[in-house]
């Protein structure tokens, strides 16, 4: 990356009007090189954690809930490759996370995801993805799994109110695993997203919404505890409302365009359910979209791992690593047809996108740069 | 009627040479060459039955000298009897009729063939189902593999998995009816590049359900093989290895389809189709036991916990009573929608049209919902690009799970969960792997992990 290119990325901030009020928090972000999953992923991640001040203070004797990114059916593959090599977080990184959190003293480590069109055990989806569930269970004491597409092992849902002025919904009803936790971790993949431009630790949390309430075949009045569809109709397109048991949309006359709706919903969600630790798997991934169902995607090997204690700051750095300005406006890459989720979350006060305020530890952005747009 | 005719046609078989293999052991191939030197390609392969479009006496003599069976391929139109006589004059072992004979032509063919075997490779509709013919065959088949839309995208199945074109449902339905050896004699699609891997998938697609694909090479591959090009020779060897893999295990062919889910269907109707209910269930890897409507009995449902009656109106009162008793004894029964008639192939069309597929999808969704996470014999994970088949020995003490990978990439980290009665598991592959697998406990009983599947793998489970 040339100095001119670097300046172009970090000086994009004036493109957007700064939000009024106190400056949103910024937090250091660590970057490590990791060329493949055959390297010592655990050691690399441990270095990132050390650079962030260690995990003991954050997780010791705590329940830690880790939201994975396992978007789409595990049956749909890109060029026959294991999903962890393309659009899912890789199971080796998941295992490394469990091991290191356990070593740091976490009392319970609960992996959660709302996988595509099922409320069955998350372990089944993992097995269908080629993951070794037994290995994950043995990576640390107290490892659990929960499919958060429905109420699952709990009774009823937890309501997460959006602080301040919500964009889309006043509150969201989620599986109780997101409430019954001390620490919430977003373990994401470094990818483009067809609707949101990029999908990182913030967008990963779109998958916290249960299909039982926000799915295409969600119950009208009450949640459908056996959902079998995705979430296009309610959240992406607003063609119907969530189950009446949950808070309804604030502005039913607002845009139905997914490029508007999804970024705003994500910003709401991460304000309502704060992320304490963001980890981004950029070792191997795909560019051009979030999964094999998006035309024109291609395999990429950025060879990076990232982590940070503020998800907006972490995503800002990750977006820069992908070769974009984290404060780019709608109509410019990567937010060509959508609003900028990072800036929307920043406006909610979740975190800072301004790279000048974010300390990068480990590998500098310009050395980690891997352009997703060719 | 057809069964009787078949019995007459094939009620022969003092074979020409005592040393020649029995029809049930014939490993067939459409042989594209007629020079004796080409027979060298068969060294070390299990192929022992050549289907010859061009019959040259010298070539036949050379083949016989190698202990091979030769069948003259005769088209069913024109002077069929004359063509048969000319072929017999060249001393072929028998005749393969490649298509449907006109009504009444069989007698003339029989007379012309004398005591030689006549194999009919017919449309699916004209197969002699349930006959005592040692070999029944069809030239109609889908070309197995992961289905691709016209725009190049992979076609998704309702499960969110890729859809796999396969003949396995058809083969299972036919084999549930009778013990005849089944030949799939469909040929590679025209104007299509067929990779070596694809040939392996086609061989395995037939073999995992107990049939044999009549090996048929596309022109390009045949030309390259004739020139002994190294790449084509390597592919040829892999094909031979895969054929040998299945031929070395005749016990697999003797095993029965096993599953706690029974599909009651008329093999002569919907069972003849590809892409029907059996194939839909196959994509979900739910072990299923096809029960021909004609064989429906309490015994045929023994051990089943769920049954699907595809065409309810087709059952006799006695057959309906069998299903009533099944439900009274705790079995779950799913019946096709009222008025829905199981379709059968029409002419060259062996798959369902869109409207029928939609209606069948409704049944499929109900089956899926009914089965849920239940273990109907075995549960498989990370197998979206694969098809599987669960077979069990007559005493139930041994079962095998065949896996075929239809993608062009190896599949890693497959998990297999099975009921607790199976204590030991062994993995074998065509590449020569033969090893015991560690059985670990699962909520269903036991489980094993398989590191990698190239094209095919078999897990043997023993009590």
What does this structure look like?
Chain A has twelve helices and 14 strands. Chain A is an alpha/beta fold and 374 residues long. Chain A has one domain (3-368). The two termini of chain A are 14 Å apart. Chain B has 463 residues and is α/β, with parallel strands linked by helices. Chain B is 27% helix and 24% strand. Chain B has twelve helices and 24 strands. The interface between A and B is medium-sized, with 23 and 24 residues.
Summarize the structure.
The complex is a heterodimer of chains A (374) and B (463). By secondary structure, chain A is an alpha/beta fold.
N-to-C span of chain A: 14 Å
User: In CATH, what is the class of the largest domain in chain B?
Assistant: Alpha Beta
- Globular, elongated, flat, extended or rod-shaped: what is the shape of chain A? globular
Number of beta strands of chain B: 24
Percent of residues in helices of chain A comes to: 25-40%
Give the domain tally of chain B: 3
Specify the CATH architecture of the largest domain in chain B.
Alpha-Beta Barrel
CATH superfamily of the largest domain in chain B: Glycosidases
Instruction: State the share of residues found in helices of chain B, binned by percent.
Output: 25-40%
What is the residue-mean pLDDT of chain A, rounded to a whole number?
A: 94
Helical run tally of chain B: 12
* Chain pair sharing the greatest interface: A-B, 23 and 24 residues
- Could you give a short account of the major beta sheet of chain A? 8 strands, mixed
Topology pattern of chain A, helix = H, strand = E: HEHHEHEHHEEEEEEHHHEEEEHHEH
Give the neighbour order of strands across the main sheet of chain B.
1-2-3-4-5-6-9-10
> Which strand-content bin applies to the residues of chain A?
15-25%
**Poorly predicted segments of chain A:** 13-18
């Amino acid at each position: 990356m040339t100095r001119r290119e670097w300046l172009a990325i970090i000086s994009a901030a004036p493109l957007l009007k700064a939000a009024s009020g106190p400056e949103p928090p910024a937090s250091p972000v660590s970057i490590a090189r990791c060329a493949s999953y055959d390297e010592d992923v655990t050691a690399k991640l441990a270095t990132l954690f050390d650079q962030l001040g260690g995990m003991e203070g954050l997780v010791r004797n705590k329940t830690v809930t880790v939201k994975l990114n396992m978007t789409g059916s595990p049956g749909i593959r890109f060029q026959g490759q294991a999903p962890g090599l393309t659009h899912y977080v890789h199971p080796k990184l998941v295992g490394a996370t469990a091991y290191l959190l356990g070593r740091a003293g976490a009392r319970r480590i609960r992996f959660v995801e709302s996988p595509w069109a099922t409320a069955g055990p998350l372990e089944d989806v993992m097995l269908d993805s080629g993951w070794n569930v037994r290995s994950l269970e043995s990576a640390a004491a107290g490892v659990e799994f929960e499919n958060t597409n429905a109420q699952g092992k709990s009774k009823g849902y937890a309501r997460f109110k959006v602080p301040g002025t919500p964009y889309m919904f006043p509150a969201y009803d989620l599986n109780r695993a997101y409430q019954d936790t001390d620490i919430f971790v977003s373990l994401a993949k470094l990818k483009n997203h067809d609707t949101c431009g990029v999908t990182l630790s913030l967008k990963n949390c779109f998958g916290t919404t249960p299909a039982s309430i926000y799915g295409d075949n969600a119950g009208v009045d009450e949640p459908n505890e056996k959902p079998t569809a995705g979430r296009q109709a309610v959240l992406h397109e607003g063609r119907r409302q969530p189950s009446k048991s949950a808070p309804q949309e604030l502005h039913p006359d607002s845009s139905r365009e997914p490029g508007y709706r999804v970024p705003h919903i994500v910003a709401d969600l991460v304000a309502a359910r704060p992320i304490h630790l963001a980890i981004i798997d950029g070792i191997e991934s795909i560019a051009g979209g979030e999964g094999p169902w998006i035309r024109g995607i291609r395999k990429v090997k950025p060879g990076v791992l990232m982590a940070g204690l503020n998800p907006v700051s972490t995503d800002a750095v990750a977006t820069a690593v992908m070769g974009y300005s984290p404060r780019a406006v709608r109509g410019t890459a990567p937010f060509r047809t959508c609003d900028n989720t990072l800036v929307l979350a920043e406006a909610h006060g979740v975190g800072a996108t301004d790279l000048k305020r974010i300390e990068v530890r480990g590998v500098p952005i310009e050395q980690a740069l891997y352009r997703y747009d060719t | 009627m057809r069964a009787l005719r078949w019995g007459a046609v094939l009620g022969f078989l003092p074979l020409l040479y005592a040393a020649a293999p029995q029809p049930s052991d014939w490993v067939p191939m459409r042989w594209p060459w007629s020079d004796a030197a080409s027979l060298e390609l068969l060294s070390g392969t299990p192929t022992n039955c050549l289907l010859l479009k061009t019959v040259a006496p010298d070539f036949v003599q050379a083949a016989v000298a190698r202990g091979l069976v030769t069948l003259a391929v005769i088209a069913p139109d024109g002077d069929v009897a004359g063509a048969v006589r000319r072929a017999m004059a060249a001393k072929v072992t028998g005749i393969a009729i490649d298509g449907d004979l006109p009504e009444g032509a069989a007698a003339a063919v029989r007379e012309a063939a004398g005591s030689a075997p006549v194999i009919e490779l017919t449309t699916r509709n004209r197969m002699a189902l349930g006959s005592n013919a040692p070999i029944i065959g069809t030239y109609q088949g889908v070309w197995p593999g992961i289905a691709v839309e016209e725009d190049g995208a992979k076609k998704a199945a309702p499960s969110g998995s890729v859809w796999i074109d396969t003949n396995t449902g058809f083969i299972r339905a036919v084999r549930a009816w009778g013990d005849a050896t089944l030949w799939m004699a469909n040929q590679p699609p025209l104007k299509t590049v067929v990779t070596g891997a694809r040939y392996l998938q086609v061989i395995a697609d037939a073999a995992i359900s107990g049939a044999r694909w009549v090996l048929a090479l596309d022109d390009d591959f045949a030309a390259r093989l004739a020139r002994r090009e190294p790449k084509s020779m390597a592919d040829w060897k892999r094909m031979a290895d895969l054929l040998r893999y299945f031929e070395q295990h005749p016990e697999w062919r003797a095993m029965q389809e096993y599953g706690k889910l029974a599909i009651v269907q008329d093999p002569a109707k919907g069972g003849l189709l590809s892409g029907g209910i059996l194939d839909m269930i196959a994509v979900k890897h739910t072990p299923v036991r096809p029960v021909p409507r004609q064989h429906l009995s309490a015994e045929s449902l023994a051990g089943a916990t769920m049954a699907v009656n595809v065409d309810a109106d087709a059952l006799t009162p006695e057959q309906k009573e069998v299903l009533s008793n099944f439900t009274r004894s705790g079995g779950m029964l799913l019946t096709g929608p009222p008025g829905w008639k199981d379709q059968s192939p029409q002419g060259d069309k062996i798959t369902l049209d869109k409207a029928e597929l939609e209606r069948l999808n409704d049944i499929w969704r109900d089956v899926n919902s009914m089965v849920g996470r239940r273990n109907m014999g075995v549960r498989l994970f990370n197998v979206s690009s694969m098809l599987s088949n669960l077979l069990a020995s007559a005493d139930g003490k041994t079962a095998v799970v065949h896996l075929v990978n239809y993608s062009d990439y190896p599949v890693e980290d497959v998990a297999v969960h099975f009921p607790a009665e199976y204590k030991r598991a062994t993995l074998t592959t065509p590449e020569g792997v033969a090893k015991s697998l560690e059985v670990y406990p699962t909520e269903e009983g036991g489980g094993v992990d398989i590191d990698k599947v190239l094209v095919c793998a078999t897990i043997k489970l023993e009590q």
